[in-house]
Design goal:
Elements: H1 3-15, E1 26-29, H2 59-69, E2 75-79, H3 89-98, E3 102-107, H4 117-120, E4 124-128, H5 134-141, H6 145-165, E5 168-175, H7 180-192, E6 196-201, E7 203-204, E8 207-208, H8 216-231, H9 239-247, E9 260-261, E10 266-267, E11 279-280, H10 281-284, H11 287-298, H12 311-321, H13 323-328, H14 330-333
Helix pairs in contact: 2-3, 5-6, 7-8, 8-9
Length: about 325
């Protein structure tokens, strides 16, 4: 199945009042390990991913996993933890590409210039960056300034190589109560260099950081992002997404648009934040069978209302919910470098 076909099938389901369940992409956490200590890192349960060690699939096992997933969808998001701690990440991406996946890699990028094949094997490279100031970034990632400088170095390396590799770049920022000025500068850098940009508010557990509510500086930041979206291509997220992360209103989440998979190949149901990962995709042998088994064990989808104001949840759900707005996103993805 492909992205476009699954999207249209979901549109039909919504038209009949049914929950959209065709995946637009799979998100595979290749590891929970990470050498950084980002202060906003949260697995939905109040702890960092690296504090929840989980065994990891080998390349051969990951290849088997990909053969199962590819029958349901053709977009694969590789994330973590920090996926670049895996020395076999190039092999994993090669396997995904050979299966016919469009690959997305989410990373801080430390050491990217020493592993140039990663860009060649990645269709969309999402670099997590919250400030252009290495001193401030050092505080955000909980590591020395030299490490923060390597994050900035990875960005400049990616910009220099993107035309050669054909890789789409995205800068993904987390807006916290203390880094709003930094996020503005990341936005301006993205716009000035024709790089796509998205922003999410900091989440504590599954709810937005309380100091972002009724925060005029945060409101001004989102207003700036919304203005940039109207004036220039590159800011991702349908307009309703930006409105919702400004006002923190409730939304109907469709978690099965992006099924999430643990490093050991077990599928979270209905989402990572639920913490339920009872079903092994390798044992189930197909995504529909795994989904059926998960539903039988855990029941129907919950109604979360005003939780998880994250790009990966809210933006994708609203993208599916509003097809005409989704069509308007094409210009933001197709801007020229």
């Amino acid at each position: 199945m492909g992205f476009a076909l699954n999207y249209l099938r979901n549109v039909v389901s919504l038209g009949f009042g049914r929950e959209p369940v065709q995946p637009l992409l799979f998100s595979y956490y290749v590891t929970h390990r990470c050498e950084l200590n980002c202060r906003y890192c949260c697995d939905g349960d109040g702890k960092r991913f690296k504090e929840d060690p989980v065994s990891e699939l080998s390349v051969d096992e990951a290849t088997r996993l990909f053969s199962i997933l590819r029958r349901a969808c053709n977009v694969l998001d590789i994330t973590g933890g920090e996926p670049m701690v895996r020395e076999d990440l190039e092999e994993i991406l090669t396997s995904a590409r050979q299966m016919g996946f469009r690959t997305v890699l989410n990373t801080k990028g430390v050491g990217l210039n020493d592993r140039p094949d990663l860009m060649r094997l990645t269709d969309v490279l999402v670099l997590s960056l919250d400030t252009m100031d290495p001193g401030v970034l050092s505080e955000v990632i909980g590591r020395p300034r030299a490490t923060a400088e390597k994050v900035i170095e990875a960005l400049h390396f990616a910009v220099s190589r993107r035309k050669e590799t054909g890789t789409k770049l995205v800068l993904s920022a987390v807006a916290t109560p203390t880094n709003l000025t930094g996020v503005r500068k990341v936005l301006r850098f993205a716009l000035d260099h024709s790089i796509a940009f998205n922003v999410s508010p900091e989440i504590v557990g599954t709810v937005v950081h309380p100091e972002l509510r009724d925060n005029s500086d945060y409101d001004h930041l989102i207003a700036e992002v919304m203005k940039a979206k109207k004036e220039r291509p590159g800011v991702l997220g349908v307009p309703r997404y930006l409105q919702r992360i400004r006002d923190f209103g409730p939304f109907h989440c469709y978690p099965l648009l992006m099924p999430t998979i643990r490093p050991d190949g077990r599928m979270y149901y209905p989402c990572l934040e639920s913490k339920r990962a009872d079903i092994s995709l390798l044992e189930a042998g197909s995504y529909p069978r795994a989904l059926k088994a998960a539903r039988e064990r855990a029941g129907d989808l919950p109604e979360c209302k005003d939780g998880c104001h994250l790009f990966c949840h809210m933006a994708i759900s609203l993208y599916q919910r509003h097809p005409f707005s989704a069509l308007g996103e094409i210009r933001h993805w197709r801007m020229k470098c």
